[in-house]
TrEMBL record, chain A:
Domain of life, per lineage: Bacteria
UniProt source species: Hufsiella ginkgonis
Keywords in alphabetical order: Membrane, Transmembrane, Transmembrane helix
The protein's name: DUF1761 family protein
Transmembrane annotation, as ranges: 12-30, 50-67, 79-101, 107-131
Automatic annotation (TrEMBL), chain B:
Keywords attached to this entry: Signal
InterPro entries for this protein: Lipid/polyisoprenoid-bd_YceI (IPR007372), TTHA0802/YceI-like_sf (IPR036761)
Coiled coil region boundaries: none
Keyword Signal: yes
Protein's name in the database: YceI family protein
Organism taxonomic ancestry: Bacteria, Pseudomonadati, Bacteroidota, Sphingobacteriia, Sphingobacteriales
Chain ranges of the Lipid/polyisoprenoid-binding YceI-like domain: 69-185
A Pfam family recorded for this sequence: YceI
Amino acid sequence: MKKVVFPGSIAGVILFVISYGGLYLGVRLFPYLFVEYNNPLFNSDGSRDMLFYSHAFLISMALSWFWERFKTLFHGSFITRGVEFGLVYSLVALLPVMWITFSALDITVVMVAGWFVYGLVQAVIAGLVFARINP
Amino acid sequence: MHLLSHLAVCLLIFLPVCKARLPVNTSIKWVVTEGCFLKVGGSTNINKFTCEIVGNYQSDTLILYKNNNTGPLKLSGKISLDVQAFNCHNPMMSADLRKTLKANEYPQLVIRFVSLERYPRFDQPEELRGTVAIELAGTTRLLDIDYKFNPGGTGILNLTGSRQVNFSDFGLVPPRKMGGMIKTNEALFVQFNLAIKVAR
């Protein structure tokens, strides 16, 4: 349990800063990529902000458990292990979810590709953290 | 002398009443014709938007009551617009605006004409002020409007009214997405254009 919660918490804090900091900068630097978010599909009354901002911790805890369970399958330096972990997660979980999301919702390719890259980067960063502090 | 004082008292009592009830001398009908639009301009922290309703309104006749009193002319009449007809030139933004304006609950945007500073001249463009009552999302607000009158050809008068309003004036909350990273600003610039024909 400790081997899941501690690395998960560390990764959560790091992902929180990088994810939302990156998102904030992305909105400011590339505003045209976010125009499509003015869309009734997205919650607009702020009632789910807590859920939105807790995502970094939720994914970190889930990935931490996944790492603890399967870390012996990843070999090499901590960078190789972290990147491979991120790629495995993206291929196994993220790609199918993005696929069904795009097929079912009225969203653009750019939007869904952005979410895929966002999730991939999060998983790689989490993988690097886990490979370092919970090898 | 006694009779005169009685008469004076009667006049003092009834004159203000009589003055207040001066019969309306004339009423002039303004028929709202084709070629009208309503435009709403706003901004978010990432873009600006302009949404319009063009030609999709339930027309009415506006009546101006000219009387001997100085001061603003009384106006009556309204135009009703279908909120679902808002077009922001981007289907997602259009849908988002309709949702924000609670189009399903309150499908009509109504502009009731209340008063006009004075009767406009028909031979040259001019700017006047007036009052309208705007009903949106179940809330009605009495607002002063800046009007521009432009005489068009063939007896048509183009009337453009404009005014800045806030979402909060109508109890609406500007949308915010992704934990507030994308925010719509409070202020909206509303402009409507009516092509009117005078019918006496």
